[in-house]
Amino acid sequence: MGTSFGRGGATQTLEDMANADCIVIQGSNMAECHPVGYQWVAEAKARGAKVIHVDPRFTRTSAVASKHVPIRAGSDIVLLGALINYVLSKDLWFKDYVLAYTNAATVVGEDFRDTEDLDGLFSGYDPETGQYDLSSWAYEDKSAGKGGDGGSEHGSDTSSRAAGDQYGSGGPAMDGEFVQDLTLEHPRTVFQILKRHYSRYTPEMVHEACGIPVEDFDYVARAITENSGRERTTCFAYAVGWTHHTVGAQYIRTAAILQLLLGNVGRPGGGIMALRGHASIQGSTDIPTLFNLLPGYLPMPKAEMGSLDEYLKEVFSPDGKGFWANADAYTVSLLKAWWGDAATEDSEWAYQYMPRINGPHGTYQTVMRMLDDEVEGYFVFGQNPAIGSAHGKLQRLGMSHLKWLVVRDFNLIETATWWKDGPEIATGELKTEDIGTEVFFLPGATHVEKAGSFTQTQRLLQWRHQAVRPPGDCQSELKFFFELGKRIRAKLADSTDERDRPLQDLTWDYPLDEHDEPDPEAVLAEINGCHLTGPEAGTPLSSYTQMRADGSTAGGCWIYTGVYADGVNHAADRRPGQEQGPVASEWGWSWPANRRILYNRASADLEGKPWSERKKYVWWDEEQKRWTGDDVPDFPVDLAPGTVPDRDARGVAALAGDDPFIMQSDGKGWLYVPKGMVDGPLPTHYEPQESPVSNPLYGQQQNPTRVVFPREDNLSAPSAGTRGSDVYPYVFTTYRLTEHHTAGGMSRWLPYLSELQPEMFCEVSPELAAERGLEPYGWATIISPRSAIEAKVLVTDRVKPLKVGGHTVHQIGLPYHWGVGQDAVVSGDAVNDLVGVTLDPNVQIQESKVGSCTIVPGRRPQGAELLTLVSDYQSRAGLTPETGNQKLTGSDPVSGEGTKEEN
């Protein structure tokens, strides 16, 4: 994605958080949503660490933190940007680390223009397409004299693909020799551009934009800087409070910049912890359920990539440095794992069997296509989109256009029953007898009824042993897909149609146990990979460095290679921590190569010595002439500090002794992204799609490259300063509770958990309650441009009004676990019905953590009267499909004329 880290997982382990001297939890309610992992934060605090919780609400995490800092939802980049400015302006950055290990000294081409020059836009913006030509963001190439290959893309088509993932886990290739100024005085060094870009992100701007008092900002700034450097480290942790925004990828980028400046990446107690929603969300992106990725973060081929060579040229550069230059070996090994003997050099290793994408095929694009009658069937596994995805009404209406729908779950979730008891049945928008969708419900096994690996938050593979057999016809996903594959292949066995060859030639011969279940360890072994030729033929690979592009190795996911080394299931390793070293490397297995901290070469200085004895982790052993330490070194083990590679060296051989970021094409952590992010080389504050606040920094209100869906059934509220914005004056934000799990499919069917949290509720401040006449424990109706829901009122000081831009902003907290149906123990209106569909342009994720609404006392109307209520507010606000969806709202970078939206 062109991030500073380049790989799709948290940089540290959860246990390593105990080594932090300061922990900032922002965009997450970790103690409540990740209570088991929070033990390590509690341990750090017991050792003296400061724990700061930045969140719109005072939560259970806030209650056990050193300090809670309330923030306006959607304004995090202002706070993080101001922290960057604080570090730079007060000269608190880790100079030796930054100069050696980041791209701070690299000079950017003279054509680049920043948001400070263009009122919130970067150079290269095309008002007609709403997209950037990235070429002006390039580094200055020594040979060219101007911008080099650093940004050679033109017109990244964010309307047709999730462009940020096109480079896979290695980030974009950077060919060329770029101008550098190690004094950092050149005005176009990354360092100087960074200083100018964040110069207006001040404590006063944080107060104006985020509602955070200056003294609270000072506390945070002092805490992270006093706990960073040679002797101390600070850790950041986030979850969907950062990702579910139209600038979600840039939230994480901002934290990455801050952590690089402070020298907190690759070191114990540092990094950025990406907290995942449940046991194997990390695994579902490693071996992906994502439309644009292959296992191990290899990009999915695009329709125009007609040959393997064309694909590989887009994926990596063999002339680049680092391990991503071996992506051809990872790709060919994957193809051999999938197609075995059919994958030959003459057949391009079966590349022509690969599906290819011609645009985005994520969940929201799919729903839009359902509504347009372009999708006939839909499989739903481990999801409950009828209430768990943004704009639940759109999800349910979309499914009513299908010919068939398959739902696998262990409860009759709302996605399986919307056709008979969903909200649209009550309003009359749908009638059961008119719905042509044939729904198949197939019972699934629970997590205790099946064996297999799961990969959790910290990239750790752990083996789940089967506790009991699944009852009746319940099946594991593994058995279901294996049986489905066998049946499809049997039907196609005699086919002579070329399009059936990929299915006919698949390797599909997993051994069965006594219950006719496929052996999950055999699948893990296939994912790990093995040698196919030579004296070691048939033996498991022990490292991804053994993979070859000549067809002599197979492996289903290169980053998992080693989990089955020597034929041993290392995901099942369970050696007690007290019998091990400090990283507990024999408890589970962490990708890649069982490393617990990524890029840990950065834990040592240029000479290979630990930055301090207190924070030593890996180091260069001069006697052994190799890297050693507490963890597996994330670096070529025999590459000595000070090594300067030959000018014509390529791949791993091109890494210098001071290139710790071994997956980046220049070996450095990126403070500035010359290509790889489609909405800017530096994170910039834009307001959410719906906001009662005008952007205090720029005339450009929202992310100008966000993906919008202007439709009558997906209306947006007007932004501040435009006609009708007073109709939806409040901010709502969604969250989860410990007692329930995601959309409730695993908890609202259990009486014990349902008793603990029996009703949908909304959290409001005493001030908002008084302003709107809301009674404690009474009913309230929350109305957005899409729908209206009812909830019990919880009046609490945990959600405080914030002074933003000279006026008070009220925020409403809404848990998202409930749905309307007749099968669960408890039901209630679904908060996701309020949420619209607008996406981050890099990763196509929805903005569901912030929206605009109003709130009134009393229960919502029933039946068709509910539609009348929603329509009345839409009319009062003057909503049309164009409202809020204008890409350019500041000054036109071409004409210079204002283009502020008027409704």
Share of residues in strands: 5-15%
Count of runs of 4 or more consecutive helical residues: 24
Structural class: alpha/beta
Q: Determine and state the CATH class of the domain at 1-143 and 160-277 and 667-680.
A: Alpha Beta
Subcellular location: Cell envelope
GO molecular function, one term: electron transfer activity
InterPro entries: Asp_de-COase-like_dom_sf (IPR009010), Formate_DH_Act (IPR048158), MoPterin_dinucl-bd_dom (IPR006657), Mopterin_OxRdtase (IPR006656)
Domain Molybdopterin oxidoreductase: 11-388, 442-487
Characterization of this structure:
- With 903 residues, this protein is an alpha/beta fold.
- Among the domains are: 1-143 and 160-277 and 667-680, Dimethylsulfoxide Reductase, domain 2; 707-877, Barwin-like endoglucanases.
- It is 22% helix and 13% strand.
- A six-stranded mixed β-sheet has the order 22-24-23-29-21-27.
- The protein is globular, with a radius of gyration of 27 Å.
- It starts with 21 loop residues before the first strand and ends in a 26-residue tail after the last helix.
